## 1
Amino acid sequence: MADLNTIDEKLGHLIRRHKHLATGQVLIVAANVAVQLPSRVIPLGRTVVIKALPGNLIGGTVRIAGTRADAENASVGYPLVVNEGVALAVENLDILWMSGATVAVGITWIV
């Protein structure tokens, strides 16, 4: 069995360890009107975690999608209920859109 330290030394140059975290929140201000997430480059080897806010109303599902139209379509957008999250490997946060059937719901993100 290979020594884990040896494997770590050999692969260390491939693993990017980042010293900084970025976080943010996006709120829905109009029901069923998609909002584009802010521009934020996601470093190579990292994912963005998007989580529905814990203060979202019960039944206040947020939909995430890659286009405005898909986010506004309840049959297509990826639904997140209160406190549910998803990790996505994207190059920039701004390729994502979110929408919901009620106002004053939103998401938080971390990368």
## 2
Amino acid sequence: MIYFILSFITIYFILDYLSFFGVFGVPGSNQVTIKCLYQYYCSLFDTFQKPSIQNLESTYNNDYDTVYGYCCRQLFNTFIQNMKNDINYTNRTMNIGVSPIHHTSFRDILEQNFAKENIHIFDIDENYEKITIPEEKKDIDYDIIVITHLWGKYLDITDIKQNIKGAILVEDVILAGEYEHEFNNSADLLFHSCGMDKRPSSLFGGYVHIKNNDDDRFYIKEHMLQSIQELSIPTKREVFKKTFDCTLLYLLYNVRCIQNMVKLFLYVRGYKLSDIIQQIRKNKPGFEHSNYMKEPTKLMIDTNKSIYNTQQDTEKLFIKNNKLFISQFTDKEVAVLFPWNKDFINTNSHISCLPYNAVYIDEKYQQRCIDYFDRHNICIINNPTYKTFDHANIEVKTFLDNIFYLPCLYNLTKREIVHLSKYLKNIKNN
């Protein structure tokens, strides 16, 4: 037995020396702490506490209050349902203005609740940084504007603010820039997620900053709090499943020897690494696909309040690693592979808080790239995050189909980040 173990260890280190395991990391992240996992496992031995109305809200500053939920999509869905049921809209059709690219969950909630002729898609510029209103859509009387910020930065929505008055401005800032700038647009609602790959990172929860508005037509915060309290809290079975799934992903994403052993197992069994990673992301263990309309427990809210200020350190890490990665490429390569980061060409600065490592790969090169990364045991998957609407123009759909995710940079060393860039450059140059 000892001989077998020593032989296995020897083989493992030989393979590691020969770079068989490729670059560490996966196209997703799990930044949940061991302490957080421990707390949720311990909570299974106690009675779950429903939060009081005081637990569900807090005062963020003089202009905004914060409401806490089970997850971000629960909060957004609650807001949408409340607006649809509001007396101001019961006898007329609502018009929703949207940026063209959203998270899957936000896109799905909007499409499920509004007809496509009432979802008006705005334009995005060629650098994928600025949202503008098409001429034929400027005279529409909008009720709600939903903007999803992208690329770990804030989109420019100056045109929206200058030309649309009276609509409720909603911003999804989950994958936006530094959180200290999130109030620059004076939005009415700003949605955050506390998922395992977000800022701040937890297992459960999300929160929304709601502006204290003199307009008393909607009572958004009051209605949201009431709706959340009418939901049931999750069962212990549901909490255990999500905690267990997240624990497995934590080990797979963050423990090198485990990740390497999985890669070796897949290689021996003849599986393609890209196929397995794509399947894992599609099933999304650790995420609720449909059963997310729940009230958070008191522990969930207390946990997310306690880790709120940790996101600043996370942002600094993302910015540092993203800048190191992008700096390995020439201006021409940046324009082709990262068209949303052309600001780096002009300013030589790169401030992106994106936890993912997105790259643009033209359709004619995609299979060659996937095969190349598979041969080198490096994870790559097609864009699982950014989606558009069924009635969006073909240019946006094609653009999103050409986005791929490489291993996330947050837990890579400087050497590994530079090494990963060389693999990507090799494909482009061959």
